[in-house]
């Protein structure tokens, strides 16, 4: 299983960015829709931390307190893609954002998000 993130870049404070994560390489019998998905962030000089997650069937979501109300995680099982809509950006959300497949424990390579004026 592999995941590839995209959509990072430079965002303005108060602006929005949308991250995407496309998954591939699933074996027969286990597909994207079988797995819970998450986003993590690693800020400069800090450890990787949880941002948001979404379950596979009921699409239950969880968020870090720091992003609740500003970030939205969603998924499209047909497209094997999970999204992170980031609104009302703040400089403190700057970092590398990683997609994570919780079943096979697979990480993407990350996409850089920088929020600065």
Account of the protein in words:
This protein is mostly beta strands and 117 residues long. The chain has no helices and eleven strands. Strands 2, 4, 5, 6, 9, 10 and 11 form a seven-stranded mixed β-sheet that branches. A hairpin with a 6-residue loop joins strand 5 and strand 6. It is globular, with a radius of gyration of 14 Å. The model has no long low-confidence stretch (mean pLDDT 95).
Approximate shape:
globular
> How many E strands?
11
Q: What structural category arises from helix and sheet content?
A: mainly beta
In the predicted model, the low-confidence regions spanning at least 5 consecutive residues are none
List keywords for this structure.
117 residues; mainly beta; seven-stranded mixed β-sheet; four-stranded antiparallel β-sheet; 11 strands; 0% helix
Q: What is this structure's SSE topology?
A:
Layout: E1 2-6, E2 9-11, E3 17-24, E4 37-42, E5 48-54, E6 61-63, E7 71-76, E8 81-86, E9 95-101, E10 106-107, E11 111-115
Parallel strand pairs: 2-11
Antiparallel strand pairs: 1-3, 3-8, 4-5, 4-9, 5-6, 7-8, 9-10, 9-11
